[in-house]
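Task card 7
Instruction: Convert sequence to structure tokens.
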Amino acid sequence: MEEFTITPEESLQLLIAEIMVWVRRGRDSRLSATDYIFLPDVTITQELKDSLIAHRIVLRDFPAEFLVLLSNMSENELCSVTNESIPYPEHS
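Output:
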């Protein structure tokens, strides 16, 4: 039976990949929460709609930006990232 081992670098890449799964799920959930603004029977001000559309753009870009942040983290910092600690952009 052949033993399977991974290098420390591969281990960190797997950790980053798992964190990015969390990031995309959280982003997708936040985008879904604002999908209602595109329904024809929803009446909101144009100002609010424009604000939510701008927020959705920031959310869509968030995974790429967070990946840059992750790639600059130390091993200890990466290991301390949890699903709850991901700093998603807030709608103002």
